[in-house]
Write a structure and sequence with these properties.
Layout: E1 4-10, E2 23-29, E3 37-46, H1 50-54, E4 74-82, E5 92-96, E6 102-106, E7 111-112, H2 129-142, E8 149-153, H3 158-169, E9 173-178, H4 181-189, E10 195-198, H5 205-212, E11 217-222, H6 226-233, E12 236-244, H7 263-269, E13 272-275, H8 285-297, E14 305-309, H9 314-322, E15 329-333
Parallel strand pairs: 8-9, 8-11, 9-10, 11-12, 12-13, 14-15
Antiparallel strand pairs: 1-2, 3-4, 3-6, 3-15, 4-5, 5-7
Amino acid sequence: MATVNRQITLASRPVGFPKVSDFHLVFSPLPSPVAGEVLVRSVYLSLDPYMRGRMSEAESYAQPVAIGEVMPGGAVAFVLESAHPEFRSGDAVEGMLGWQEYAVVQGHELRKIEPSSAPISTALGVLGMPGLTAYFGLLDICDPQPGETVVVSGAAGAVGSLAGQIAKIKGCRVVGVAGSDAKIAWLLDELGFDAALNYKTAEDFDGKLEKLCPAGVDVYFDNVGGAITDAVVRLINVKARISVCGQISQYNLEEPEVGPRWLGQLIVKQAKVQGFLVSGYAERLPEGLKQLAIWLKQGKLKYREDVAQGIEAAPQAFIGMLQGKNQGKQLVQLSEF
């Protein structure tokens, strides 16, 4: 077993898009567990858009990462040494282990996973936080009904791709918005979306979106905000529901955008907009995981993973994800199984 732990820490607070120089690769002694703790070796690290907010000093829903602190993030790992009665060496687990190859965590902060039921990486995607975010954000907030039109922005990402597929399971007509022709092809040819639009190449985005939604929009699952959301809100129907999952188009702006004020549209259309955090559904996570696992086994949910190799690749992979270069779930493989 290694005696050194490699970690990625926050070196400086980004201005605009993060740079590789905003991160620092450090070496530290391998930690040891005390009573109630578990030492794990991480195999896959999850990279997610919310991490960008935690790199900023401004107040947010979670404590900002301190300069010199290990970057936060979910990971799947194997237990090496346990001082907790519910875990033993060799157990596969998932938890907020951070951008590091090894971690010591409290046992109650870990979730056991079963490698024989699905690849362990799915605990960070379709059977993890992204899947649960899509599940509760779409079904609990928007309650999509058969025949309704559902628009998903960021539709080729880890959450958006699953939200669109869940909407299809519920009998909806699904329109995805993504940023490359390859992503559009994936949505249409593999995931079963009814229509999709490349916002980067559409010369008349508003007009083309209107043509793809001739009956208007009943449900909007918003991952990006900005001009795309402005265009969708213009098309909402009476009693439409909007779930605000993310605003990735805004995360790296140096100055806030000035956009249309569309709250009046909610009055006219008697529509609902609700933001959410998946952590708010903590007591119902087993319900969501059970249903997602059933759909995955039935072949009703498909997923794609974009995997970078090695802890040192995490900063560039994270920047690429914020720029929309990934398809599906962005992971970093830190070690072999």
